[in-house]
């Protein structure tokens, strides 16, 4: 007899989780939506455009760090490494690492956007025909398991792009603990994160002149309309980037331009003029502070690489 769980469509599960998060977030006194839902297929494509913008320094800075130090990172990973990448997206940076590794054992890209993930996996298979590529559709902020068939040799978590900055303190701890569990004994991690710097550099990176970041943010409301039957008027909201000093974070908000209402799944939500929906935080770290956070999750920071301006860091962690 088949397991009942085997008959459940993953798309149904994801839609239900999306709906729960949206209804719960918009019911709060300060409305918020989890940033992971920004990354449907359309959102992933828009984010890839963002990474090419002149204002958006993190991607090109991290790529320059990877290219300059990839041989050291390869030695840190060791021969036969199995690379687990959370939030893989287009895996542009991953190709730099994979090309430098000695006989990598496998590449396991993990992403919530299933169709986009499969496209990425196929491209990586063509680029590295001898490499086992094992895509996993999952929300890396929630509990999930690495498939049993993935090779067991030294596992290296790869988490570039300062994605860890999108998590609050509790979420970052939870993520790092799960990553440690997935890496297992003898495991390691390469994690990229953004460093604190002038707001003259930070804010334009999240509110570009061409409006691509605004389109990325507003796509979340469009996704609610597409997938949950919502009736948001996208022209009734604008994107805004703000600095939150107490959280050391750039925040993205969707600001209601007028008094209005929106309906989702027969529930109605009122918005006052100027009221916002908080859609993402991007935390900026001091290097030492990140080391403390990692230590609390069972990692020790043994390597670190930065650009000359000190805008960005990639660190090597090993399981305690």
Topology at a glance:
Layout: H1 10-26, H2 41-50, H3 57-77, E1 82-86, H4 92-100, E2 106-111, H5 114-127, E3 136-137, E4 155-159, H6 169-183, E5 188-194, H7 199-202, H8 212-228, E6 237-244, E7 249-256, E8 260-264, E9 267-271, E10 276-283, H9 287-296, E11 299-306, E12 312-319
Parallel strand pairs: 1-2, 1-4, 2-3, 4-5
Antiparallel strand pairs: 5-12, 6-7, 7-10, 8-9, 11-12
Order of strands in the sheet with most strands: 3-2-1-4-5-12-11
> Helicity range of the residues?
25-40%
CATH class of the largest domain: Alpha Beta
Q: In CATH terms, what is the architecture of the largest domain?
A: 3-Layer(aba) Sandwich
Q: How far apart are the first and last residues' alpha carbons, in Å? A: 43 Å
Query: Number of domains in the coordinates?
Result: 2
The name of the CATH topology of the largest domain is Rossmann fold
Note poorly predicted spans.
1-6
- The string of secondary-structure elements, in order, is HHHEHEHEEHEHHEEEEEHEE
Assembly state of the chains shown: single chain
The major sheet is characterized as: 7 strands, mixed
Mean pLDDT: 94
According to CATH, the homologous superfamily of the largest domain is: Vaccinia Virus protein VP39
- Overall 3D shape: globular
Count of individual helical segments: 9
Instruction: Calculate Rg over CA atoms.
Output: 20 Å
Derived structural class: alpha/beta
Strand content: 15-25%
């Amino acid at each position: 007899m088949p397991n009942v769980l085997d008959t459940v469509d993953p798309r149904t599960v994801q839609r239900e989780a999306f709906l729960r998060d949206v209804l719960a977030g918009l019911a709060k006194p300060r409305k918020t939506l989890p940033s992971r839902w920004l990354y449907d297929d359309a959102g992933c494509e828009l984010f890839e455009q963002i990474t090419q913008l002149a204002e958006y320094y993190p991607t090109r800075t991290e790529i320059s760090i990877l290219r300059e130090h990839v041989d050291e990172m390869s030695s840190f990973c060791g021969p036969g490494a199995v690379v687990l990448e959370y939030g893989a997206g287009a895996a542009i940076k991953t190709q730099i690492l994979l090309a430098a590794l000695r006989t990598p054992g496998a590449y396991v890209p993990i992403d919530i956007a299933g169709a986009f993930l499969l496209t990425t996996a196929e491209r990586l298979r063509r680029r590295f025909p001898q490499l086992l590529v094992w895509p996993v559709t999952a929300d890396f902020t929630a509990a999930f398991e690495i498939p049993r068939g993935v090779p067991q040799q030294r596992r290296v978590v790869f988490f570039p792009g300062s994605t860890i900055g999108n998590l609050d303190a509790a979420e970052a701890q939870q993520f790092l603990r799960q990553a440690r569990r997935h890496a297992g004994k003898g495991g390691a991690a390469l994690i990229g994160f953004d460093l604190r710097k002038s707001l003259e550099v930070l804010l334009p990176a999240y509110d570009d002149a061409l409006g691509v970041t605004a389109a990325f943010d507003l796509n979340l409301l469009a996704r609610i309309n597409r997938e949950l039957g919502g009736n948001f008027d996208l022209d009734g909201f604008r994107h805004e980037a703000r600095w939150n000093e107490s959280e050391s974070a750039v925040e993205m908000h969707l600001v209601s331009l007028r008094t209005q209402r929106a309906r989702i799944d027969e529930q109605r939500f009122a918005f006052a003029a100027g009221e916002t929906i908080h859609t993402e935080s991007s935390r900026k770290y001091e290097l030492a502070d990140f080391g403390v956070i990692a230590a609390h999750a069972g990692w020790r920071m043994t390597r670190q690489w930065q650009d000359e301006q000190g805008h960005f860091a990639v660190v090597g962690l090993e399981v305690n």
